[in-house]
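Students often ask why we bother encoding 3D structure as a string. The short answer is that it lets us treat folding as translation between two languages. Here is a chain of 300 residues written in the first language.
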Amino acid sequence: MTTISKVALAGATGNLGPAILKGLLDAGFQVTVLTRQSSTHTFPPNVNVSPVDYDDLESLTSALKGQDAVISTLASLALSKQLLLVEAAAKADVQRFIPSEFGSNTINDKTRQLPVYADKVKVQEALQKAADAGRLSYTIVINGPFLDWGLKVGFIGSIKGKKIDLFDGGERVFSATTLASIGKATAAVLKHPEETKNRAVYIHDTAVTLKKLVAISKKAVGEDGWTTDNVSVDEMYDNALAEMKKPQPNHNVFVFGLLKIGIWGEGYGAHYEKNDNALLGLKELDDAELEELVVNVAKG
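And here it is in the second language, the structure alphabet:
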């Protein structure tokens, strides 16, 4: 495989996109951001911008001509559009495709069966088919929940609100990664194309239990005022499926419920004991560094 230097990034905004963009630029890649034709978002002057129609194969193929790799961070509601992006990448002779995964272990059979990951599984199948035909190669980046973001917005827990739910008692170890580390590692994937070819790579900044995270958070921001409710994963699963069947389901109930099950449920492969940190240049946080991260989240 020849050296990868030119990278197209689909979905450079949102929660993760800016971190991926920074990681690519810091690593010296020439980046072209694919934007919707209606977009008014601005990017640094050293970034090329290519407006595309995500529903038009020729528009995407034309934009991808000359690119060595495509990285997608398209939001969940646009995941199905990746199927056309995969086809366009193959037609444009792109070498490597990194799909919009960047979360739970969707290689795990139990995780793959959760309805919330249906589109991601379809994209994986399309990539495998293209790889088997020799049309392109792929890498799936598995990083668990976004560590810093998840503590800011309350997905893992709320540091400012002093609240962390303990799923089934909070004793299961799970892997989590900061946005910056995901950006750095994703760029590193393209620096190691042979070692990361046609497989999932696993990364994390920490592997921790929710109970330990509560203890570290109390040490970081103070013991008083914390709420730690015990939440049954089985009940959350039943509630999520029941919500899905409603004529107008509440996305916060079933989408976030199923996402949390894939992280804190039993048997979903959420602890990446075997990982690619060393290959991709990531160092696991020690307790003091994790405490510092919590302090910074509280300040922010």
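Translate back mentally: The longest strand covers residues 30-36. Keep this in mind for the problem set.
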